[in-house]
Amino acid sequence: MSHELIDEAARTESAAAPALRREQIASKVIKKRGESGAAIVPRAARAPRVAIVHDWLVTYAGAERVLEQIIACFPEADLFAVVDFVEEKDRAFLHGKRVTTSFIQRLPLARKKYRTWLPLMPLAIEQLDVSAYDVVISSSHAVAKGVLTGPDQFHLSYVHSPIRYAWDLQHQYLQESQLTRGTKSVLARLILHYIRNWDVRTANSVDQFVANSEFIARRIHKVYQRDAAVVYPPVDIEAFALETRKDDFYLTASRLVPYKKIDLIVEAFARMPERKLVVIGDGPDMQKVRAKATPNVEVMGYQPFAVLHDRMRRAKAFVFAAEEDFGISVVEAQACGTPVIAYGKGGALETVREGTRPTGLFFEEQRAEAIIAAVEAFEREPGYFRPEDCRANAERFSAARFREQLFARVAQAVPEIGYRDTARPQAVPDAQNEVDAPDAPRVLAIDQSGVLGGAELSLLEVVKGLRSRIEVLLFNDGPFREALAAAGARVDVLDSGALRNVRRDGGAAPRLGVIAGIAALVRETRRRARTVDVLYANTQRAMVIGVLAGRLSRKPVVWHLRDIVSPEHFGRVQRMVIKGCAKLGLAHVIANSHASAREFVQLTNFDERRIDVVHNGVDEAPFRALDRVSQGTLRAQIGLPVDAFLVGAFSRLAHWKGQHVLLEALRHDTRFHAVLVGAPLFGEDAYAEELHAFVKTHGLESRVHFLGFRHDIAACMRAMDVIAHTSITPEPFGRVIVEGMLAERPVVASRDGGVTEIVEHGANGLLCTPADAAELAATLVSLHDDAALRERLAAAGLAVARARFGKAQYVETVDRVLGEVVKRGR
Predict the structure, then answer these.
(1) Which stretches does DSSP call E strand in 218-265?
(2) Fewer CB within 10 Å of terminal CB in the chain, N or C?
(3) Which CATH superfamily, name and number, covers 621-805?
């Protein structure tokens, strides 16, 4: 069997998802359903065991990038493969896992010529014993899906492709491998026939297929007569930085192998001498490519990532002529803000968007003339493609989204799998000993928001900890609902729009339409409250709905107060509503700081015995996962200057958050840069525009870095030298401060509100007068000049964050309070 057949399979890249499908699978999914439609599964005596099966481990390519993220989803899983010959220096993606291999591992010459043992691989995969596991996840582009499983095991197979060289591409691969005639050809065809029969038979043991694209889903249906969900493969979006200024050249980058058609692209540009093309990559087609190159075509060969990244960011378009299952390079180019000119077949049709907010255009034939016509069409409308639209489209294929969607599919089929933090390769401690007690309360959590703000992140931790007996009701859809679903939570959205125009700073009295919408929310919340013991309101507007619904359903309502209810934060009408709700039906209040509790008592005269102060808990895992990653590496991945002294501000862009104070401090001293991580969320776009205008007016463009909304907060924080918290009005708590401490960075914060309950000036951080830019600048300079001070504050901050603001104790305390409220009402 030729080397090319398996080489091609090893290059396979993988898959994101449309609507969730639930299949009737084994006994892991119980047929009985409750009113909500969710599967009802008996609680297992132990957490289900998970096995991950991969084809073979010999390199780190597209399929292995997917495997890395599957391991991150299920960090306690055991790993199996036909062979494992990955060098020690390249094993980081396996996160230290020992791999159980087959008998092929010990066969003669297996390390260098494992490909020759392909005829034995179906037998080998069947000898891997996974019978002790409840869940089996196979990552398959060849034989992994054929692992033997029983009727009480759930088997999900993530398919990069059915065995391409055995199915529709057999004749192409035999021709490229020079196996069209002779004895070797007959033997190869017999082996492929045997593999096809085996491949179809073993498809019956898979409970749920997941494909890496709609293209592969169609191939799965053709070959196995089975439907497949789609979860697009993970792309390291964060490693590629957006660039809006483009230079006058086109780029193509790939391994130079025949099916990539790089020679065809070069031929097309050779006939367009006025257009410059840059080619990056190496491989067996290098001589063919160089032979066709003309002076306007620069063939650079293999280049390190830094060079590829630079050219990808600056190119006016990325040209792609292959028919790929997915095509990671196409997404990477868009992540840089670079539009794509692609062959209109395969995965590119799913990753490149035409029509509204387009990110590229297609040519219909793999011919030089078709590429030339597409380039000319691109040149006729130079402003038609916006870099920002390209980047936004690429975000759909992030590694975080892959983890969320893959985990959600397993968790929906096997709810007792329990939550595992899908954002990083570490398991979340199981805080369910007390949670699963017979008298533990059933909880309906309510939140008004669909965005992922600080309040929502804190609620998410509670939901993860109480997952078996908590339901979540949201009044807006968005990323928060997606995060909850990925955590295996039961979540529903009542998107009536009734609360959308109700502002914290008050305003006119609500109109009749708003009142009718609120009434509808109350009715639906009351209906859901019938099956729970307590309503747990996470935000102020949700609290109002909760109090009304709780009154009608005779269920206690607990408000998790995450705001300082002062005139600086709330309008007069809103504060009157809060005061009325406190008297009408609040059973208990959990305050995130003593500062929040004091202001609430002052406003409402609420019984202090019915208030518990519970500081927010923050998960340390994402920060520890980066312990071995250097600051320089993180800065390079994010696109930040490596040698600058970086001060990071992490918050949504809002005037009261005080980002303008940090920018003003830059004018007092030139020794530091500012990095603003966050975006305007609640109608605060004007403030964001003011910040950009300030930077431009004062010539600070080279020293201010706007990163926008980010999912990789831990990485961004560890890329900083200092974390600055600059709120100009009292902060209820200051989650960012705790995160900065967990990132082991010194923190400078405004001396007000809940912040003073976290930071002890000079001991574990430094405090400044709110809105005083000069004092802030002087404090930052002192940290710049004193590395020993930075180290001492960072170490002390880490110790405090671990001791006082841990996630487990936070969830346990909230659960205890909810339980006490329910007992008190019985």
Answers:
(1) 228-230, 250-253
(2) C
(3) Glycogen Phosphorylase B; (3.40.50.2000)
